[in-house]
Amino acid sequence: MITFESWNDAQAQIPDFPADSETKGALETLRWAYETYGEKLVYACSFGIEGIVLIDLIAQIKPDAEIVFLDTNYHFKETYETIDKVKARYPQLNIRIQQPDLTIEEQAAQFEPDLFKTNPNKCCEIRKIIPLQKALAPSTAWISGLRREQSESRANTNYLNLDKRFEKIKVCPLIHWTWKEVWRYVTKHELDYNVLHDQGYPSIGCAPCTKPAFSIDDIRSGRWDGSGKTECGLHTT
C-alpha cells in the first residue's frame, strides 16, 4: 500500500491511470483508491460542481463512502441546500459534517470580529485546516476535486500526491477534466448542483470571502477578493 510514510519507496507502484478513458482516468483512479485504502479513504467535499461529479462517480464504486464537509458556519444557504439534495439522491452515502472547535461568536471573542477580513489565513486555519486535520486523522488517504485547469498553483497536480500538510496521500481523480467537461457530465446525468453556479460563482466557498468571478479564464478570481490570498490552505504544502 502506498502511504505517506512509504511514498519515496512505493512510487513505482502507482498505476498508470488512463487519461484517455471515458472519465479521463477518474473512475479508474477512484476504483483503485477504494480497493487500496477501503475505509481508510475519505472524500473532503465542498459540494461545488466538481464535488457533484465526484460524488456521482464515487457512488458507482462505493455507495456508502464517507464524505466530510467542513462546515465553517459561513457557507451560503444554497450550499446547505445542495447538501440536502445530495443526501436525498444518494441516501447510502455517509456524509459527515465537521465543525470547527470555535463558534463564530467564540472566535470573535478570542480574536476579533470578522476575522476573515483582518486575518483570513487565521480564519481558514481555525475553520478549515484544523477541522480537516481532525477529520482525516483516522485515514490514510483523502480525495480532492482539484483540476489542473483551475489555477496555476494546481497545474502540476497528479492523480496521487504526497500531502505534507496533512501527512496523507491525496487522490485527485479529476486532474485532466476541463470546466466544460465537468458541466457536460452534470448536464448529461441531470445532477443537482449549487444554484450559485448559475449566478456567476464558478468557485464557491464561505459567503463573506466569495464573490462572482471576474473572468471564466480564472474561475477562482472571486475568492478572497483584494486580499492577495488565493488558497484556503488545504491544498498548500
Oligomer: single chain
Number of β-strand runs: 6
Low-confidence stretches: none
SSE pattern: HHEHEHEHHHEEEH
CATH superfamily: HUPs
What CATH architecture do you see? 3-Layer(aba) Sandwich
Main beta-sheet strand count, sense and barrel state: 6 strands, mixed
Cα gyration radius (Å): 17 Å
- In which order are the strands of the major sheet placed? 3-2-1-4-6-5
The SS-based structural class is alpha/beta
CATH class: Alpha Beta
- Amount of beta strand: 5-15%
- End-to-end Cα distance: 22 Å
Number of domains: 1
- What share of the residues lie within helices? 25-40%
Tally of alpha and pi helices: 8
Provide the CATH topology: Rossmann fold
- On the 0-100 scale, what is the average pLDDT? 91
- Principal-axis shape equals globular
In short:
With 237 residues, the chain is α/β, with parallel strands linked by helices.
Describe this structure in words.
The mean pLDDT is 91. The protein has one domain: 3-Layer(aba) Sandwich (Rossmann fold). It has a 6-stranded mixed β-sheet, sandwiched between helices. It contains 8 helices and 6 strands, in the order ααβαβαβαααβββα. β1, α3 (49-61) and β2 form a beta-alpha-beta unit. α2 (26-37) crosses α3 (49-61) and α3 (49-61) packs across α8 (179-188). It is of the alpha/beta class and 237 residues long.
Helices and strands in order:
Blueprint: H1 7-10, H2 26-37, E1 41-44, H3 49-61, E2 66-70, H4 77-89, E3 94-98, H5 104-110, H6 115-118, H7 120-136, E4 141-143, E5 160-163, E6 168-171, H8 179-188
Parallel strand pairs: 1-2, 1-4, 2-3, 4-6
Antiparallel strand pairs: 5-6
Helix pairs in contact: 2-3, 3-8
Pfam families: PAPS_reduct (PF01507)
Family: Belongs to the PAPS reductase family. CysH subfamily.
Main location: cytoplasm
